[in-house]
Description:
CATH class: Mainly Beta
CATH architecture: 5 Propeller
Structural class: mainly beta
Strand order of the largest sheet: 1-3-23-22-21
Shape: globular
CATH topology: Tachylectin-2, Chain A
Largest sheet: 5 strands, antiparallel
Distance between the termini: 52 Å
Number of helices: 1
Amino acid sequence: xxxxxLARQLGGWLLGAALLARANAxxxxxxxxxxxxxxxxxxxxxxxxxxxxxxxxxVNTAGWPDSSYLFGSASKGYELHYSYSxxxxxxxxxxxxxxxxxxxxxxxxxxxxxxxxxxIQDGAWKTERLPFNPSGKLDYxxxxxxxxxxxxxxxxxxxxxxxxxxxxxxxYEVTRDASGRWGSPWKLPFPVNTPCVQxxxxxxxxxxxxxxxxxxxxxxxxxxxxxxxxxxxxxxxxFVTHFRDGTWSDxxxxxxxxxxxxxxxxxxxxxxxxxxxxxxxxxxECPAINCFFRAERQPDGSFARLTMVxxxxxxxxxxDGKVIALGESSVSADGKLLAFVYVKAGITGKxxxxxxxxxxxxxxxxxxxxxxxxx
Length: 375
């Protein structure tokens, strides 16, 4: 009787300990394998995606998180790369030099855009600063990486002339060795970089193909296309270059659906299997400021069969608190998660289609997940 009683008591202790451990364990929302925050309102997900949420953890804070890029898988772990500036997004037209509102992140010297990496620790996304960031007054943003972790490409926004607030983006590359130590970054040569804007470079899984967008009118960038008056929209096209014989080839415009219509096609991402190109576009199929699209790779390297992936709320009456613009989509290697940047209209009570600093717009990084069977 004593043995049975002790066994039952021990079993009760073990069960109680298990229940307590389960209660204290990090939780995720149903259907999610990663920690997520509040649901994003006003964003319609298509093409098999669902449940758009804010990233949970220290990624989304005051300041300006941007340039999301998602790597990895559920089995090997996810890495969310992004850029962050302590300046307010409302200062974008002034090159964010006024409102230093965001927290100082570990290792960050310059308050403008630095590149960061977030991984899941203790049930939340935790951030660390990448070691090749600037100490001087240059913004680093829009990073992209090969599946092996090297090379890594990104943008620096450099003044068009000494003392100017106007900047132009140039693509840099950096590699790391087998021990994980980063080398010295170098600026890619002409005609990858031109006098025009280069932005949002991404790499294929093998690191031998790079996509980026530019406002160059011709391949040499002898003439740069001007912007438009519509917020978040400017003349951009998507270009591709290949690494051959130790150098990047002369870029050419991507053929097919990604550049068929404008005025803006940008922020390309090639799926890890190389079969699908995702990008941000403002075009006739999208009634909002911009949308996410996908197209399938063809044997000649072009992309066809246009599919809309995500549709924000149109700017105007009823936009308060809703996502009104999107940017920088990327898909995890296992195809289960879609990362993106969102722009949300603040609660202003305004009833007219105006978007600007006075509208208290918010910016952050979100995730969507693949639909499960039966959803």
